[in-house]
Each structure stands twice: as C-alpha cells, then as structure tokens.
Design a protein that fits this description.
α5 packs antiparallel against α6. This protein is α+β, with helices and mostly antiparallel strands. The chain has nine helices and seven strands. It has two domains: 54 residues, GTP Cyclohydrolase I, Chain A, domain 1 (Orthogonal Bundle); 131 residues, GTP Cyclohydrolase I, domain 2.
Length: 204
C-alpha cells in the first residue's frame, strides 16, 4: 500500500476510535487555519509540536517527593539561604503562549536545608505545566514550606508574557512581578527587606 495513503487510513481509523494523538489534532488545526499540512515545511510539524508540548508540560509527570528524593539535609544553620536568577519557561493556561523570566527564592532554615540543584528543579517542575504566574509563585513557596518546615520562605517571580507582547495590548517591554512571603518573610520586615535587597543586588 502507498505509504501516505496508509498513514491517512491509520489517522482516520484512530479518529473513528476516538483515540487521536495530539499530532492528529494539530494536523486538523493546520487545515482549519488555512494551511496544507502535507507541504514540505509542515509535514513533520504535528509530531514536532506534540513532542515539544509534552516536554513543556512534563511537570505533570513529577511530584515534589520524587523530585527531592531525599535531598533534604539536617544542618545547624539558621541564616538566610537564597537562590536567585533561576531562569524558567512556562505556558500561560489562558492562551497556551509562553511566559518566561526569573525566580528568586529564599528561606530561613529550621534544622533542614534543600540541595541547591533541587531548588531549581522544583521551579522547573511547577513551570512545566499550564500555569498562571500567581499560582506558580505560590506553589514553589508552599512546596518548600511543606517539605522542610523553615522559619519562612520568600519567592519572587519576574516574567514577560507573550500573550501580552504578541496579542491583546501588545506591550513589548512589560514585566509582571509576583511574590509569595510565608512565615518570617511575611511577619518580619527586616527579613523581608534583606531578601529584597539581595534580589536587587547585581552580581559583578
């Protein structure tokens, strides 16, 4: 059987069974947008899109316990731990367009700390989902609070949203800033101010 005809029959069979892949649906979307999914530049686009989308939403396949995997350590240290300028990319759940930027995280240990690389992985886990920036900020802070019970947690997220830059108001240089302050970071102004000052300080 001719291969393109065979592939078409397979797609039609899958559709009839109600078991279409993301690539099948993207192929239909391309047609509805007025393009030809069989032209050279678009022939592999549905499969590429599915692969990219599965990576960008891979955070749904992870959870905090698996990610930390024992990487919390008992330590007699109660000064602020800060990891700043953690780059992230996420998908706006309203338009399925990217938003991206940096996350700054600080916490005051209460006999436990998290491995530094795991802090960045925690950001990735929550970012690789369909998100809004406000929820992303809170989820990061709450996960750290739940897993190591620190004296306080502070999270600041700065991001640019393509749903604002490419469509709608089309503001190219706007940036959204959100924060979550828990425990000492909420109740102690000195702690909060120290965190904010460290975030503003630029590395040489």
């Amino acid at each position: 059987m001719n291969k393109p005809i065979e592939e078409l029959l397979l797609h039609e069979s899958a559709a009839a069974a109600g078991d279409e892949s993301i690539a099948d649906l993207v192929r239909k979307m391309i047609v509805k947008l007025g393009e030809d999914p069989d032209r050279e530049g678009l022939r592999k686009t549905p499969e590429r899109f599915e692969k990219a989308l599965r990576f960008l939403t891979s955070g749904y396949q992870e959870n905090v316990d698996q990610l930390l995997n024992g990487a919390t350590f008992s330590v007699a240290y109660d000064e602020m731990v800060i990891v700043k300028d953690i780059e992230f990319f996420s998908m706006c759940e309203h338009h399925l367009l990217p938003f991206f930027g940096k996350v700054h995280i600080a916490y005051l240990p209460n006999k436990k700390v998290i491995g530094l690389s795991k802090v960045a992985r925690l950001v990735n886990m929550f970012a690789r989902r369909m998100q809004i920036q406000e929820r992303l900020t809170s989820q990061i802070a709450q996960a750290i609070e739940e897993k190591i019970d620190p004296q306080g947690v502070g999270v600041i997220v700065e991001a640019r949203h393509l749903c604002m830059q490419m469509r709608g108001v089309e503001k190219q240089h706007s940036k959204a800033v959100t924060s979550a302050m828990l425990g000492a970071f909420r109740h102690n102004k000195q702690t909060r101010d120290e965190f904010l000052a460290l975030v503003r300080r630029r590395s040489d």
